[in-house]
Structures are given as structure tokens and as C-alpha cells.
Design a protein that fits this description.
Two copies of one chain form a homodimer. Chain A is α/β, with parallel strands linked by helices and 456 residues long. Chain A has two domains: 12-79 and 377-438, Urease, subunit C, domain 1, CATH 2.30.40; 81-371, Metal-dependent hydrolases (TIM Barrel), CATH 3.20.20. In chain A, 34% of the residues lie in helices and 20% in strands. Chain A contains 15 helices and 18 strands. Chain A has helices spanning 102-117, 120-136, 149-159, 183-194, 215-227, 240-250, 254-260, 278-286, 295-300, 308-313, 333-348, 356-362, 365-370, 404-411, 438-449; strands at 22-25, 28-29, 42-47, 50-56, 68-71, 75-79, 81-86, 139-146, 162-169, 201-207, 232-236, 268-272, 290-293, 318-320, 388-392, 417-422, 425-429, 432-433. In chain A, the strands form three sheets. Chain A has an eight-stranded parallel β-sheet with strand order 7-8-9-10-11-12-13-14. A six-stranded mixed β-sheet of chain A has the order 2-6-15-16-17-18, covered by helices on one side. In chain A, strand 10, helix 5 (215-227) and strand 11 form a beta-alpha-beta unit. In chain A, helix 4 packs parallel to helix 5 and helix 11 (333-348) crosses helix 12.
């Protein structure tokens, strides 16, 4: 396979001391390391859960008989994608309420459905369905926040995906936490229960928003997160109504309000960030707050277009998220990258803005930074965790191939993902699920949701 | 399969006088006829190239032994999609030049590449690649305009797709027409050559734009089109620069300029239509001009967001197009529908705008109106041409199913299309191409484009 881009010729690595368990070879490797071009054809060797070698595939290589060889000819080998904002169990409500005014959507549809139908069993199976969809479309790590998060932990553990999973915190009666006074107590219990449970899963807290959490709750959640050295997630300035509400309540714009609370720092992960002043953006950048761009949800709910190119120009590492399936309505990060690029261009009137490489970074290395695990994932580098996907280039929509970055962002979808490896474990092989039974999960979710009495 | 929507119970049709050649049964039928809900489970019978019967599948039915039975259980049966604006052979340049300023993209990349590399052979194979991609993603009819269109006709004829194929007309030296003085002569020859060649293909003219065609050329093209009772395609007000240029040249905005030329009528198909005043929109609506919305291209080139909801509210039937693969970069109308809905919502701040059913109409029945063949295609109705697709609902991203319209627009992609029938002929069966050899076409295009010396 040929690409018209210049090829980075990487020297063969030093002698390999460990034998590979998995060898992926023959494809175009996109490492997503800054400044590195594609390696074509490449060979990536994995031992246990780590990448131990990256080679130009220009000479014979002897494998141990036990090694699993993944032939990636005609494919791209790249880091697994990272979904930095998601409410996984909302797969349960996919397509149940669309094309509605925002308040009606939330107050008359989503909140009542959550209140009526969320319970440990539905959250567990909805999470499994989300994991299935993420694996199928090349996501290897994600950041989640929702209710009954214990059950999401169990589902994600079963799937083999890597995730930061956060218990939802809100100052209203919530699914599983009828008394808001208990939200931080329950949140702390959640973290204590799951910290150290698995190398792949870290627990945390997700404050719903500055308008639905009190100052006390926000401060408390930030303190707990700091105590455990964990990120704290929040929805920030998603809609202009929400901004107006906070100005009315506090006399300040949301970012200044959070600053006054003392919680604007590198541990904070703020999703949406649509309605910000330049001053707010600069303050977020200065404090190292992590931003997650959620373009499809922001478009579908007509929230607006976040000023992502400005944030990036200030040196911020912005992640990319799908949001939940009630407002997207899928978990496909390939489509999300495409939309992020196109929304960035049309909203700024600048076609050079949000180029393919940039949105790929958002969904890989910068996503790693948002999750606080950039030293371990987000690029294909020797010593990093083996979170790798193989994207099949044999569909007519991926021919010809001039620039792999463009092909991945503007032409590929999640359906082109062929193989998925997380932490050295194969979760998808030749499009077949290795850890989950798709028929069981889809059948179960269909059965559970058939009782959801919808007035749609 | 259950859907939560009310089910339309259609009476069994009158006794069937003709025997079906093809029976598609067991799926949820979306007819796209105004006011009709889904029929589930449905049976659609095809004789030769027409739909002869539509039934609720509630009783036994005896088929002639010769009939081909397509089991659509777990699928949606719906009209084939209609791509109302496309430059098919530009698949050749897919991904060759992205993330560039508009003038640089056009003047330094696209025009030179076209000039250097377009010839009958490359156009033929590029068109075949486009047909392959359209068939794979559920498009059954399309409207095309480009150069060396004779070769696109040959390719489309081989594919079995239905299309209106137009020879490009521009007042510059163009691929295949070095002397612009000959553009209308060549265009007339093209129409005369292909009129009556095939029931599936109609020839026509495509004027590049009001800024690149002289008043004389525009008038001439309109006259020729009228003489042959054919639609005339044009790019209209895609960018604000183009609008400024026409105002400077003619003292009028583009729509008023075209009106003065006397060519604003039901035969005109105007693609893009991004930068229009309310007055221009009203004039277009009054004259019955057909508009084609091209949202992904308009976003990627940062041209802007067309005011489609306003046009629809004035009773216009707006089609949906992908544009060429140099500015999209795919021909997947499922993704285009999703983007059309989301761009419509975010650009107007109205989440109720451009609902799923509306964008499905744009890609089906209204597309039929744009192509001038709405009496024959665009809906599943007894007596209409058998242009039918089957969309597989078994991917995890399509579970659960509350509302088939939402699932198709917001969750499905072209990769979910399983079967495609055009004019009663099966072009795709269980995702296998029946008329084209994908390996041959992709190999040929890879070989041809490998010689495209790109300075990318």
C-alpha cells in the first residue's frame, strides 16, 4: 500500500529482550506522536499489556510460535480512540426522544425516563451495549459519568475496555440517590469501593453542572477528587440559558463562579464549554482545565459551536466526546471527528481550522491527557500500553488513499474498524467480539426497553 | 421486531394480477408517503421494474417458485436514497487536498489536478468507484455534473444505477472542452447522443455557476434544456465571495441576476444556495426553482449554512447532495442526512427544526422532485419503480429501536445497507455487489491515481 505522504523511516529498535505475544504487521502505522509521519509498512510488537517494539517492516522477523499475528495489510494501525465524554447507559434511550425543544427534551422525556427506568439491571445492560458499540467502532478508553455507576463498572470490567467511570452528583433527587444530601457520601463510597479494583478502571465523580449543583457540593466534590488524586468531571456552559441562570444566581459567569469556588485547576474536566467569553477561555487555559468538545450533541440540541480552535491556539489539550446516545445518537468517534472538523470550519469561516491531524489528536493523545493517562495511552510508542486499533481500508469510500489522516477523519466511520486491542488483550478480531456476546446484549436491551412506556 | 410508533395498517391490496419476481418481506416498511407511518412487518412485491403490491405481512402468501425472496427480518425496507448533487468522478481526488483555504484548494489543487488528470479513462473508473460507493451506502438515483460526462454515462449504465448526468458548462478552458466557445455545442451533442439511450439515464447540462458562465452561456444552456425538457443544474451562491463578485459584475445579487436572464423556473436545480437574502429565497420559491442542500461540503469548505428550514417552510422541496469527494469526502447520504439535521438545528438555534422525517424526505421523495422523476421514484408505492433498499438493524448502534426515522437519520450509516434494488434489478445482495466487481474497480483506481503527482 502506498501513501503520498513522506514516510518516516524509523530505525529498527534496539534488540528486543521480550518475546511478543501479539504482532500487528503490514499496515500503515499512525503513531500520533507529534511530528511523526506514517510508517508504511509497519510492525508493532506487544508483550503482555505493553508495546515493546515498533519497526519498519523491511526485513524478516522471527516470531515465537505462540505469538498471535495480526495481518494488517491494507489497513491503518493506530492508537485506540478515546471518548472523553459519555453517559454510556443512555444507549437505553437512543432515539426515544429527538427533534424536541431542549427543556421539553430534558424535563418531559429524559428526566422522567431516567427516573422511571434506571435501575442497576438496566444500567448494567445499557452499559454493556455502549461498550459493544465503542469496541465495534474503535474506542479503547472512555470517560463516563452517570447514575448507578457501580453497574457501569461491572459492565466495563466485563468488556475489557479502559475507562474513568464517575458517579453522578446533582442536588436534586437522582436515580439511585433519592436524597441529594447523600450525593457526596455515596460518591465517596463509590470511589472507595472501586479504587484499585482494576488497572483499567479508575472511579471518580461527575458534578452535573454549576447550575444543578450547589456551591457546597461543587467544593466538596473537588476536595474529594483531590484527596483521591482523581479528575472531576462537570458540564460547563452547554447552553446560553444555563449561563444566564448562573449569572442571575451568582452575579458571575460560570467560569468565574467556579474560579471563585477554587475548583478551576488541572483536575477539572469540563465538557461542552460552548458559551464562553474570551476571558473565560483564557482563564480555563491558564488553570490547565481540561475541555471536552462534544460537537454532535451541541448541534443536535442546537446548543451552539464551542470555540475549540481558540482553545487549542492557547495550548489547551482538548478531548473529544460523543455525549450520551439520547443526544447524538451513537458512540462512533470516527463520525464525531468528522463533525468536529466540519463544525470548527463552518463556525469560524476558516477552512484551515481544525485540520484532520488536530481532530485525530483530540480523539487520541489529547484524550489521554483529559483522562490523566497520557503517559500510558493515546499514542503508539514503545513502552506504552497496548491500546491499538486496526482500520480496514478496503471499502470503496476509502479509495484512493492520499493522506491517511484525511481518510480517517473525513471518509472512515466506526464500521471500518476491524481489530481492537486494549491493554494487550484482543477485544475485536476481524470484526468479531472476543469478550462480549453481542446477541445476548442486544436481545437483553431490546427486552428491557420494550417495557419503557414512551409517549413518543 | 417492534417499534413504539403507531403502525399504519394497510389493507391487503386488490388481487394481484401479476406474479412477483422479487418479494421483500419481514422488515419494517417506511414508505415515505406523506402521512403514512411504518408498516411492520411488511411485504413488498416487485414485478419486472415496478412495485406491484405492498402488504402487511399478516397472512400466508404463495410465491411463484421463480420469485427471489429477500428476508428483511430485523431490517428496514425503504425507498432508495437520492443524491441530488454530486460530481461522481471526483472520487479520484478524495482526500488529496483538505484543510486548505478555499481559493488555494480550488486554484492550486483541484483545478490543476482536474486539468492534468481528467481524461475519458480516469473519469470512467472514478465514476465506477463512485457508483460502487453509492450502491454500498443505499443510493439508488443521483444527479451528476462534471466533465467527460460521456464516460460517466458508460460507467453508470454498467452499474445499474438511475441518474441524471449532465455535461459541465463553463466559460473557461475545461477538461475535454479546451475552447469555451464550444461548450454549448458539446453540451447539445452530449444530450443528443444519450437521450433515449437508457430508461435509467437522462442527460443534461450543468452550468458551473453564475460567476464562471457568461450571461449568454447561461441563457443558451437554459434554452437547450427547455428544448429537451430537461433540468438545468447550477451552483448558486455557495460562497460570499462569489456573491460579491456577481454583485460587482452585474449590480445584482445572483438570484436577481438569474431572474433577469429569465432562467429562474421549475427546470432549474440550484445546488448550495448558502448566501441568499430572504427576498432571494422567496423569489426562488415563487418560481419553483429546485434547491439542493449540500451541508457537509458547505461545512468543510466553511461556506456557511444554507437556510433550508426557511425554504421548506415556503413549500420548497429541497433535495440533499453530497457534492464531490474532494469536498466531503464520501458519498454516504445517511451521514449527510445526519449532518443536514444537526447543521439545521445548530445554525438556527432551533432543535425542532429539520427533524428526522424531513431530512429523510430530502433524501427520498423530494430528491425525486429535484430530479424530475417524483412520479416514478422516492417513495414505496404500488405502481412506482422498484428502487428499494434494505437497512440492517442488527448493529449495536441501532439498538434499541424506538423510532425508525430517528434510527435511520441519527444512528445508521451507509455501512448498514444490506440490499439495494434499482428498477427491479438487485445491485447489492447481503452486501455483495451484483453488477460491479469492487476489487477490479478499486485496483484500477489505485493504479490510475498512483501517477497523480501531488504536491500535498
Amino acid at each position: 500500500m502506498m501513501t503520498h505522504l513522506d514516510i518516516t523511516t524509523k530505525p529498527l529498535s534496539d534488540s528486543v529482550h521480550e518475546e511478543p505475544d501479539i504482532v500487528i504487521e503490514g499496515g500503515i502505522l499512525i503513531t500520533m506522536v507529534d511530528g511523526e509521519g506514517p510508517i508504511d509498512p509497519a510492525r508493532v510488537c506487544v508483550n503482555k499489556n505493553r508495546i515493546i517494539d515498533i519497526q519498519v517492516m523491511d526485513e524478516a522477523f522471527s516470531f515465537p510460535a505462540s505469538a498471535e499475528i495480526i495481518d494488517a495489510s491494507g489497513c491503518i494501525i493506530m492508537p485506540g480512540l478515546i471518548n472523553s465524554h459519555c453517559h454510556t447507559p443512555m444507549t437505553l434511550f437512543r432515539g426515544a426522544a429527538d427533534d424536541l425543544p431542549l427543556r421539553e427534551w430534558l424535563d418531559d422525556k429524559i428526566f422522567p425516563m431516567e427516573s422511571e427506568h434506571l435501575r442497576p439491571e438496566t444500567v448494567y445492560w445499557g452499559s454493556l451495549l455502549g461498550c459493544l458499540e465503542m469496541i465495534a467502532s474503535g474506542t479503547t478508553s472512555f470517560m463516563d459519568g452517570y447514575f448507578f455507576e457501580d453497574d457501569t463498572v461491572q459492565a466495563v470490567h466485563r468488556s475489557g475496555l479502559r475507562a474513568h467511570l464517575a458517579q453522578g452528583v446533582i442536588d436534586f433527587p437522582a436515580p439511585g440517590i433519592p436524597d441529594p444530601a447523600e450525593n457526596l457520601i455515596k460518591g465517596t463510597e463509590f470511589i472507595e469501593k472501586w479504587a484499585g479494583f482494576s488497572d483499567l478502571i479508575s472511579p471518580g465523580l461527575f458534578c452535573h453542572s454549576p447550575s444543578t449543583c450547589s456551591a457546597k457540593t461543587l467544593r466538596g466534590a473537588a476536595e474529594i477528587s483531590k484527596d483521591f488524586s482523581l479528575p472531576l468531571q462537570i458540564h460547563l456552559s452547554e447552553t446560553s440559558d444555563e449561563v444566564d441562570e448562573i449569572i442571575k444566581k451568582t452575579g458571575q459567569r460560570p467560569v468565574h463562579f467556579l474560579n471563585k469556588l477554587g475548583i478551576l485547576d488541572e483536575g477539572l474536566v469540563a465538557a461542552h464549554a460552548v458559551h464562553l467569553t474570551r476571558d473565560e477561555i483564557e482563564l480555563l487555559a491558564e488553570r490547565g482545565v481540561k475541555i471536552v468538545h462534544v460537537p454532535e450533541s451541541n448541534m443536535k440540541l442546537s446548543s451552539g459551536a464551542a470555540r475549540i480552535a481558540e482553545m487549542i491556539s492557547l495550548g489547551m489539550k482538548v478531548g473529544l466526546g460523543t455525549d450520551g446516545c439520547a443526544s447524538n445518537n451513537d458512540l462512533d468517534l470516527f463520525q464525531e471527528m468528522d463533525t468536529a472538523a466540519k463544525l470548527g470550519k463552518v463556525s469560524t469561516g476558516n477552512p484551515v481550522s481544525m485540520e484532520a491531524r488536530t481532530v485525530l489528536k483530540m480523539a487520541t493523545s489529547w484524550g489521554g491527557a483529559v483522562l490523566g493517562i497520557e503517559q500510558e495511552v493515546g499514542t503508539i510508542e514503545k513502552g506504552k500500553k497496548a491500546d491499538i486499533i486496526v482500520v480496514d481500508l478496503q471499502g470503496p469510500h476509502l479509495v484512493p488513499l492520499y493522506n491517511p489522516f484525511s481518510s480517517l477523519v473525513y471518509s472512515a466511520t466506526g464500521a471500518d474498524v476491524r481489530d481492537v486491542i486494549v491493554d494487550g488483550r484482543i477485544l475485536l478480531r476481524n470484526r468479531g467480539f472476543q469478550t462480549l456476546d453481542p446477541d445476548e446484549i442486544m436481545k437483553k436491551v431490546r427486552a428491557l426497553t420494550s417495557t419503557f412506556a414512551l409517549k413518543a
